[in-house]
């Protein structure tokens, strides 16, 4: 056997993922209301900004989750969200301050996060609201839990 020389070994420090600069973390957003299901902070995935996401489970079609985030200055922003896609995630409609962003299918194979454009929005400094409404499930989804995961929202002027 070859002797082990510890002085030759490099020590690698594994640090948790850093937050995306300027992002409003989903897990830190205030939950204004939730008409069904449960929500919690979910962590343990290295692909997430700051290591966590807001996880909403078992909402039924028509249920809503209303989140609040801070806008630092008046302006027109391109809004981008980083969302979880997995086999038991649902189809959801997203609005920002009442303006429809679209309907998004968060079904996916495996577990991964994708950035999605939520459109251009004119926002005032202060609180803004994102409403997520359960539409249903992709026919391939199993089980059909209509889950939703938000890593972060980023406002780009």
Q: pLDDT under 50 segments (min length 5)?
A: none
The major β-sheet equals: 6 strands, antiparallel
- Strand residue content: over 45%
Helix content: under 10%
Q: Cα distance, first to last residue? A: 61 Å
Computed CA radius of gyration, to the nearest angstrom: 18 Å
Structural category: mainly beta
Number of strands: 11
What average pLDDT do the residues reach?
Answer: 93
What's the SSE pattern? EEEEEEEEEEE
What is the 3D form? Answer: globular
Number of helices: 0
Give a structural overview.
- Strands 1, 3, 4, 6, 9 and 11 form a 6-stranded antiparallel sheet that branches. A 5-stranded antiparallel sheet has the order 2-5-10-7-8, with no helix packed on it.
- The radius of gyration is 18 Å and the shape is globular.
- The protein is mainly β and 157 residues long.
């Amino acid at each position: 056997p070859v002797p082990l020389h510890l002085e030759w070994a490099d020590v690698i420090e594994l640090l948790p993922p850093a937050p995306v600069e300027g992002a409003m973390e989903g897990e830190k957003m205030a939950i204004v209301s939730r008409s069904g299901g449960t929500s919690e902070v979910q962590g343990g995935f290295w692909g997430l900004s700051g290591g966590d996401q807001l996880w909403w489970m078992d909402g039924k079609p028509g249920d809503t989750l209303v989140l609040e985030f801070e806008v630092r200055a008046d302006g027109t922003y391109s809004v981008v969200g980083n969302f979880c896609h997995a086999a038991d995630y649902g189809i959801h409609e997203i609005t920002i301050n009442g303006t429809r962003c679209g309907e998004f299918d968060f079904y996916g194979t495996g577990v991964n996060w994708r950035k999605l454009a939520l459109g251009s929005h004119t926002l005032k400094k202060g609180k803004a609201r994102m409403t997520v409404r359960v539409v249903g499930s992709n026919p391939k989804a199993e089980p059909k839990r209509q889950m939703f995961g938000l890593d972060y929202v980023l406002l780009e002027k």
